[in-house]
Structures are given as C-alpha cells and as structure tokens.
Design a protein that fits this description.
This protein is mainly α. It is built from 14 helices and two strands.
Length: 350
C-alpha cells in the first residue's frame, strides 16, 4: 500500500490521505453552502421581512420601491461588510493561535482592539469625530501602532520575539491602553456616549464608504496570511525545525503580525470590537481541516463570515422590531458554545 511521510515523521497510508482530503473538501463545501444561505437570510430577514422572490426582483429588476431601497442600500452593504469583517476576524484568530501556539489566543492579544479603541476615543475627545467613517482611520492607526509596540516590546532581549514574550507584551500593552481609554471616557460624558455605540460591535449604521476604506487593508492582510501558510506549518513544529526547513522564524513572525494588524485592525475599524470569532472559529474548523494551515486559514475565513452573519440575523430577530448588536449576540452565544467545545472534545493541538 502506498504511504506518505507526514510532518511528524510517521508513515501514512494513501487511503488515509484521501480520507483526510475528502473530509476537508466536504467541510469547505458545507461552509460555502452555509455562507450562501446566511447571505440570503441576511438580505431577507430584518425588522421588515422580505420574501426571497422580492429580494431577487430587487437585485435584478429594481423598480424604486421601498423594498428595493431596503435591499440594495441597506441590507446588501451590511451583508457584504459582515462577509469581509467575519473573514478577517476568522483569519486573524487562526494566525494568532498559530504564531503564539496558544489555544486561547485571539486578535485582541496583540493589542489590536485596545489600540483601536484608544485612538477612537482620542478622535472623539480631541478632534470631535462623530461618525463611523471618521472612526475608521483612528482605529486603523491605533491597531497598527499597538501591534508594532507589542512586537518591539517582545523583541527586547537576546531571544527575540517568542510566543511567550508576544503574549506577555500583548497583555501589557492591552492593559495600559485599556486604562488610558477608561481615563478619557470617565472625564467626558459626551465621549463616553459616542464611544459606547462603537465599542459594542455592530454591522448596522455603516455605509458602503466605511467598507471601501478598510477592504484594501483586509485584502492585503488576507493575501499575506494565505501566503504564509507553509511557513506557519513549519513554525508549528517548533522554531528549530522551522529553521532547519529553511524558514526565517523572525520574518515569519513579522509578516504574521502585519497580517493580524491589517485583518483585525480593518475589521475592528469598520465594525468595532467583536469578540469570540477569532477565538472560536479556529477550534471549530480544526475538527475537519486538522492543523494544516493551508486548509485551516481559508476554512477559518469562511467560518468567520458564517458566524458573524448568523449573529447579525439573530440580533435582528430576537428583539424585533428593534435590533441587538452582533457583538452582544456573539458574546452571549459564543461563551457557552466555547465552554461546551472545550468540555466535550479534546482541544486540537496547535
């Protein structure tokens, strides 16, 4: 029987390889089908339910009716934003867990969320920014600066940046920025009122221009992330093995941090901090992709989009005719789901 040598040095029969590949392809196909269904629900479900036939007519033959305006100008941009932001957060979470080799890591551990939040507060308090489009550039800048500070702090010393020093530096920078953010919003009630609507995390109230401003950063981060999959596979075997296979550990970590900052920073800038996607998604998709980042990264992107759209649709339904922001929904649903995931199955190796 033909065999193949795996990364761990053990022989694996060809039928086993075919079974693994089949499982991965089926998993990706199911995610794609689920994503299409979520997109249809996102366009059709809301405070005003719209039948799919009417949605189809609004897409292909709009006549200027109220339904056409709701579908084309409100729900489609919102759905596209959810697709992009969910994919970015899913990718960023998989990268973060891979680079830190920490099963509980999420994009916020590099200070991305804290940096974005602090600069948004400064934008509101100092410059009087008052709309989501204005928050975008402050949030992107804050995410990038915080990520750079984490890397510089983790690089101090002879060993350079390691998973442990990166996690510790990220925790320190995040705590510092969170304290500074709290200090600003506590001394100015107007800033607190404006900031709290951004900080809850939502797809509502963001027009197409917000997505246009961040999509290029997210696209660049996604390309860097997917291109770094082979190096990340080697890095998961240990730094010494990665060097023996010809990969530069420091360059891989630098490109990983850049990708995480672009992905998570772009998504956070557009939607505000949204928890649990980057934490939960990689664990879910590892059940059928295994640890191979060539499959794990695209599956995490698809799964992140599915999760954020499901959360957004649920938020429109549970308190109809009002809405519950997707950040709240995912926090309420994501915590017990993640606890059950940890309790019922052994955490996949990273």
């Amino acid at each position: 029987m033909p065999t193949a040598i795996t990364a761990s040095g053990t022989a694996r029969p060809a039928p086993v390889r075919r079974s693994v590949r089949r499982r991965r392809l089926v998993g990706l196909a199911l995610l794609l089908a689920g994503l299409v269904g979520c997109c249809l629900l996102s366009v059709a479900v809301g405070a005003k339910p719209i039948p799919l036939g009417v949605v189809w007519d609004a897409l292909l033959a709009p006549d200027g009716s109220a339904n056409d305006i709701i579908v084309r100008e409100l729900r489609i941009p919102r759905t596209v934003l959810g697709l992009v932001a969910g994919a970015a957060l899913g990718l960023a979470g998989a990268l973060m867990q891979g680079h830190t080799r920490n099963a509980l890591a999420d994009p916020g551990i590099f200070g991305v969320n804290a940096g974005a939040a602090f600069l948004v507060v400064i934008g509101i308090y100092v410059f009087g920014v008052a709309d989501p489009l204005g928050y975008v550039w402050f949030a992107l800048t804050g995410a990038a600066v915080a990520s750079a500070a984490v890397f510089v702090l983790a690089s101090i010393g002879r060993g350079g940046p390691t998973p442990v020093t990166l996690a510790l530096a990220g925790a320190a920078i995040s705590a510092l920025l969170a304290a500074l953010t709290s200090a600003v919003i506590l001394v100015d009630v107007a800033t607190l009122d404006a900031y709290r609507f951004w900080a809850v995390g939502s797809l509502a109230g963001r027009d197409g221009e917000v997505l246009t401003n961040v999509v290029w950063f997210i696209a660049a981060g996604a390309l860097i992330a997917l291109a770094s999959a082979p190096a990340l596979n080697a890095l998961s075997l240990g730094d010494d093995v990665a060097r023996a296979l010809g990969h530069s550990v420091q360059r891989t970590r630098v490109t990983g941090i850049v990708a995480i900052a672009l992905l998570a920073g772009g998504a956070t800038a557009a939607c505000g901090p949204i928890a649990f996607i980057g934490l939960v998604v990689p664990h879910v998709v590892r059940t059928f992709t295994g640890p191979d980042y060539r499959w794990l990264l695209p599956a995490s992107a698809l799964s992140g989009s599915v999760l954020i759209l499901v959360g957004d649709v649920l938020g429109r339904v549970v308190v109809r005719p009002g809405e519950l922001q997707v950040g709240i929904v995912l926090a309420l649903v994501g915590a017990p789901v993640f606890i059950q995931l940890v309790r019922r199955r052994k955490m996949a190796n990273i």
